[in-house]
Amino acid sequence: MTEQKPSRDTAAGWLRRVKEAERRGELLTAYDLASQALSEHPGDLALRHRAVLQLARAGATRTAARRFAELGLAGDAAIEDVAALAARIAKDFALAEQGAARTHKAAEAAALYADVHRRTGGYYPAINAATLFLIAGQDAAARSFARAALENTGGTAATSEEAYFRLATEAEAHLILGDVEQGRAALARAASVPLHDQAAFATTRRQLRLVCALRGQDPGILAMLRAPRVIHYCGHRVAQGRLTDADMPALRQAVDRWLAERDVGFGYGALASGADITIAEALLERGAELHVVLPFAQAEFRDVSVADGGSDWVARFDACLARASSTSFATEDFYLGDDSLFSYATRLAMGLAVLRAQYLDTDAEQLAIWDGLPAAGMAGTAVDVAAWRALGRTGHIIAAPARAVAPARAPAAKAAGGRTPRAMIFGDIKGFSKLRDSEIPRFVDHILGAMARALEPHEASILFRNTWGDGVFLVLRDSAAAALCALDLQAAVDSLKPEAVGLPAHLGLRLGAHTGPVYSQRDPLLRRDNFFGAHVSRAARIEPITPVGDVYVTESFAADLALQADLPVRCDYVGHMPAAKGYGKLRMYLLRRTPAGP
Predict the structure, then answer these.
(1) pLDDT tens for residues 489-517?
(2) Domain range 229-399, its CATH number among 3.40.50.300, 1.10.10.10, 1.20.120.80, 3.40.50.450
(3) At the N or C end, where does the chain have fewer CB atoms within 10 A?
(4) What pTM does this model have?
């Protein structure tokens, strides 16, 4: 992702920028901005509160709880917004549980909100207490706090934001009380407020969907608060015989109609001549966000995938890129004839689209301009459409004229072997360097032995492994396999009691994981196949910034996991963090397991 450029500002100025990103539903950017602001204004309460709020809204509950403590917000718990944020984090922990644990923790979080309401009389803590008591099975308390919330939503709202939240609270309270028609009417009034705050809408939808489920009510009433859709887009290039310039006006009209019908607000894809640029221009013209994902270095992509369409397409490429909300790269290195980079970039764009849809509580769909014919090589629109369909997600085809398949793009100078996307794990044991020689055999037997046993169930997915001292490097077939392997490794070391075998108690494992295109070649020193490339170096820079006991992963890893619907893991955003050894800033996520069950 493109980084936020440093710029000094007042605390109030920073807060405005944070809230603007928040309104767009850019929760991760909002958190990054708040963190940057706190480096200049570390004591500002509003910025500290807003930073943690973004993490909570993004679902990064564990990280939100840690930052709440680190930023000293517990000392400001007498303030309603801060106290309510502590209760919200407790609520999110409760909702992540199942069965009796969920009921118990929901009651605890409800009590926190109830205490805030008793001190402040606010409708926000009252309605949250009501919903949590409903989850905890305490119907009388739920109804009591719902009525208390309704009693406190009257009066004239000072801002559109306040007006919206009062009406949303009324809707939630009526639904808890079983009055669906009153709830529907309040929700309709809330939807008419000119707020344009996607994060607020997402929060409301999640909360009301929960209430509807608990009360057995039709969640269809939430459709009036539907967020703009997120799309992954793709299609044929011109200058390959699949599309011509003459085809584009009619295709553009079809794109405009579909984007309007589906109310699309966010698009993720590449920027090749033809379909990509046409869809990107349509997105920008309707005020939607454009997020460009390129397979390799920008200048070379322009030469390989845009310039052969003509100078007009180059100018349109530059104009779209200048207006894009973000630009990401499968690799910032050269093409080298590796068509696998196109497929990897497509998967990255798909994953980023799904992640964004999850944060916004909306749908992710695909729009493809496709002639229905097979791809001319290992990458192409047919491949992209098939990959999206394999995910079981909704897609739409705008039919392009079916012409003879053109020859595959002229290959660039291709490096031996080519690059293939792989998942990589680096780890080390903190405290190893302080071990005495007499302790090393016990470390090898017990710590490395436990790690070896944890790897045994993953043997089929492990392509390479290496150790040096306490360091471990693993290459696995894909992100899903690497995620489960990393969590099993961490659990194995966490379960040990080093002091029981004569080792220091402070020993702990930290792991970093990344997915990217790498070379596989025979290593003349090791005399076996090994993995090389810029993305191996990137993966190695993550582990040193990872806290002991955690697994940190890059955004490309998290995006790939987002495409795995049934995987019992999730990624919580932790921030735009500087990688080790001056490798630049990377968006990092905390990998964790999700509870079993529905």
Answers:
(1) 999 999 998 888 889 988 889 999 999 99
(2) 3.40.50.450
(3) C
(4) 0.85
